[in-house]
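Tokens for chain A. Residues wanted.
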């Protein structure tokens, strides 16, 4: 959610600032009722950001679920997608150019921002921004081959704002 908020603030408010993900995650854990378990839902993360006044209230009728098949279209329409992935231990050792290795042991769910894709290169890829800091991957960004993306992407959320034209 922090990465999504950074995008939103830059695009709609002209403010480029880093957002600390920890308070959002802590509030989301309280909302989902599982404060000692790892992970939370995207819906709880979105509600947490609203509760912390980091974003205005979202009209729940404007929230759209995005499947792997709809990611490219959603990126074109919304710019970024708040995304849930089932990650593996390979995510913690991304290459310096951002590539995530295939395989590994399942580590559970993780939220990131899906922020782009390329079909013009020899190996097509999807881009994500992770919340693990800029020393992970390429300055906090990672690339996944389409097969891996489709295997590990669970769902995404996008929504409209009154500021959109």
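Reply:
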């Amino acid at each position: 959610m922090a990465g999504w908020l950074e995008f939103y603030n830059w695009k709609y408010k002209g403010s480029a600032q880093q957002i600390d993900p920890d308070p959002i995650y802590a509030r989301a854990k309280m909302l989902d009722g599982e404060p000692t378990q790892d992970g939370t839902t995207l819906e709880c993360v979105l509600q947490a950001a609203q509760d912390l006044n980091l974003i205005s209230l979202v009209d729940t009728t404007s929230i759209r679920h995005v499947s792997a098949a709809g990611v490219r279209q959603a990126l074109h329409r919304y710019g970024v997608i708040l995304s849930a992935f089932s990650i593996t231990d390979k995510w913690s050792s991304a290459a310096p150019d951002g590539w995530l290795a295939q395989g590994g042991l399942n580590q559970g769910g993780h939220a990131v921002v899906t922020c782009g894709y390329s079909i013009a290169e020899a190996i097509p890829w999807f881009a994500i921004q992770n919340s693990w800091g800029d020393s992970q991957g390429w300055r906090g960004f990672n690339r996944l081959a389409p097969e891996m993306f489709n295997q590990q992407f669970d769902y995404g959320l996008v929504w409209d704002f009154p500021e959109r034209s």
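The first helix runs from residue 2 to 13. The helical segments are 2-13, 21-32, 42-51, 71-78, 146-152.
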